[in-house]
Amino acid sequence: MQRVRPKKQLGQHFLNDKNIAQRIVSSLDASSVDAVLEIGPGMGVLTEMLLERFGEKLFAAEVDIESIEYLSESLPKLKDRLIHADFLSYQLDNILGGKIAIIGNFPYNISSQIFFKVIENRDSVIEVVGMVQREVGQRICEPPGSKTYGILSVLLQAYFDIQYLFTVSEGVFTPPPKVKSAVIRLTRNSTINLSCNEKLFHKVVKAGFNQRRKMLRNSIRSAFGDIKEVHPLFDKRPEQLSVAEFVELTNHIEKQIG
Q1: CATH architecture of the domain formed by 14-188
Q2: Which of 42, 139, 213, 217 is found 20 to 30 A from 85 (Cα to Cα)?
Q3: What is the CATH number of domain 198-257?
Q4: 2-31: buried (b, 16+ CB within 10 Å) or exposed (e) per residue?
């Protein structure tokens, strides 16, 4: 009986170039992790290579039941470690509870949400290799001062060292997307805790970029009320601040709001 390949899911374009797949898989170190989790394996182009390399350390999370059934038949060694679940709602502690590396051709429509979940699980996720829309990859990697530097740039760079690895053309996907893709790598840095209230730090970063065209004095006032003691960073726009300066600003705001 011939196995039927799963249909394309919403927001997902399946990679069909094995050379690109090998480059992605080779970009993941994962030498010091307890588990490797692939997000959205689809037809298993990456999965087969990952299974050869990582064996029983490999898990795969897939929301589409057709893909789960297809992979169960085509890669029987992985069958017991296929997770039929939405990654965004899945508890990563359910895998092993240790250190985790994440890899995948991330669906365009949820790639930012995947990275926010990585931030939430930064104590266990120590490496990520992901293929995303090129503009998203560039935004995440941008330094302060760039027009595309934003919330994800700051929050990810606070906890991870980030590399833009390579660009992927439209023609290696089925169906081809209308934009190019990028493969980026995140490696957990040495920052265990920021030297500030981290929950407030996240709020300050989001408040600043929610009104990114305004000076920070305006966006901070909108989010936290009138801050009596003026700080020089209030005269800048959010994209001008480094992670360290956002930490400094957070400490100042916490003193002011008690």
Answers
A1: 3-Layer(aba) Sandwich (3.40)
A2: 139
A3: 1.10.8
A4: eeeebeebeebbbbeeeebbeebbebbebe
